[in-house]
Amino acid sequence: MKNDFLVAVAQISAERHLPKEVILEDIEQALILAYKRNFGAAQNIDVEIDPNTGKARVYVHKEVVEEVKDERMQIGLTEARKIDPNALVNGTVQIEMTPKNFGRIAAQTAKQVFLQRIREAERESMYADWSDRLGEVVMGRVR
Questions:
Q1: Positive or negative, the Cα torsion across 100, 104, 105, 106?
Q2: Mapping DSSP to helix (H, G, I), strand (E, B) and coil, where does residue 143 land?
Q3: 104 exposure class (CB count in 10 Å sphere: 0-12, 13-18, 19+)
Q4: CA torsion sign, 96 to 102 to 108 to 109?
Q5: Could you give the CA distance from residue 11 to residue 20 in angstroms, rounded to a whole number?
Q6: Averaged confidence pLDDT in the chain
Q7: Residue 91: CB partners within 8 Å, gap ≥ 6?
Q8: What sign has the CA pseudo-torsion 57, 63, 69, 73?
Q9: 2: confidence class by pLDDT, cuts 50, 70, 90
Q10: DSSP class of 86
Q11: The pLDDT of residue 93 is above 50
Q12: Looking at per-residue confidence, does 51 or 137 come out higher?
């Protein structure tokens, strides 16, 4: 059985006439913003949502250095090699930092960003549908 998250994505996709990929990307961006607001904006992060399970993972990218000056942005070579044995100085390492509980404020932030991005995507989709009809007279009904 599909999980509730994927059912909700499919429902939003059908209602708003948007591809599922656009919705998943918007959710990822909303989660990035929520994470940065709650756990530090200086970090370089990515969020990946598994399209089959709906599980979100947060990854922090840190620069590999010999001497760590900023723990949020850098990682020592010995620590980096524990994560990636091929890590080199001046390279980057991707570390999973998925928080156990984002909390109510992060969820609210993600919701607001997501709704805004959905409205923008709807506008773009509607514009694309109607822009080629410029100069035509069309009949319609306003509800």
A1: positive
A2: coil
A3: exposed
A4: negative
A5: 9
A6: 81
A7: 63, 64, 80
A8: negative
A9: low
A10: T
A11: yes
A12: 137
How many whole angstroms separate alpha carbon 44 and alpha carbon 63? 10
C-alpha R_g of the chain: 20
Write the pLDDT tens digit of every residue in 47-67: 888 877 777 788 888 888 888
Looking at residue 1, what is its pLDDT? 39
What are the backbone angles phi and psi of residue 141, rounded to the nearest 5°? -125, 130
Residues present in the chain in total: 143
| Secondary structure letter of residue 132 according to DSSP | G
Tokens of 55: 């599980």
The pair of three-digit structure tokens given for residue 7, joined into one six-digit string:
């059912």
Comparing C-alpha atoms, which of 24, 1, 30 is closest to residue 12?
24
Distance CA 25, CA 90 (A): 29
User: Per-residue b/e over 8-34, b at no fewer than 16 CB within 10 Å?
Assistant: ebeebbeeeebeeebbbebbbebbbbb
